[in-house]
């Protein structure tokens, strides 16, 4: 049997890098993308050091043509069994009435249209083969609102609706579609969100940061590797009965 091929958009850093590593450790050849392909080097090295296989390709998830070209290039490597639409932007943090319409649109175009363009490009091949696992990285923020994060929350909730409809549409073709909803993941992006939260609410950085860990019964932020492990599970044969789900990886914070 040939080695499975997986695609991870935004695989150059953060959560996407962790997902790439987890899928590579599970035995897939992983195609990791970024807009600037050179920025994927760190991920390639990490996968190589872990004894896995990964390839870097460039794409812009906002551009349908770019994603169709990507799908053709990935097809040259092998038939794709897993597509993880991870690339996204945090968008603006401000009260809704202060958000610039261009910033709103940029968030929705990257975080919702980006998932649409990504899946749309890879679905025909999966239908042809009669199998596949589609995974979209949504967010706890789609379900449990955070101050000032309206565009991001709207985008991430839309992704859950997209995935549920896809599960219905593609189930008869043997294709599963799921969303993963991480809570606050330790790393530079959450530090930035904490800073902007503090500014938007007029509170101190420590208070804003404490709000994130206090929401978890485990008293912790989520680690990117913990999101990667869930994606590897959803891609695996252990998850063949799981479709149309939105799995929280929030250290319990989604409950509060
Ligand atoms: P980062 O901001 O660290 O990375 C974003 C990734 O998306 C980068 O790889 C970036 O690549 C890529 N990307 C952004 N815009 C585009 C585009 N137009 N075309 C192609 N690639 C693009 O994000 P995180 O690792 O923190 O988050 C990854 C995903 O997880 C996102 O969907 C995010 O919303 C979600 N998430 C994150 C949480 C967190 O706490 N960090 C919590 C919940 C969900 P490039 O180098 O090209 O910019």
Automatic annotation (TrEMBL):
Signal peptide range: none
Coiled-coil zones: none
Listed Pfam families: adh_short_C2
Stored CDD domains: SDR_c
Gene3D superfamilies, per the entry: NAD(P)-binding Rossmann-like Domain
Family per similarity comment: Belongs to the short-chain dehydrogenases/reductases (SDR) family.
Matching PANTHER family: 3-OXOACYL-(ACYL-CARRIER-PROTEIN) REDUCTASE, 3-OXOACYL-[ACYL-CARRIER-PROTEIN] REDUCTASE FABG
Protein name: SDR family oxidoreductase
Organism field: Actinomycetospora endophytica
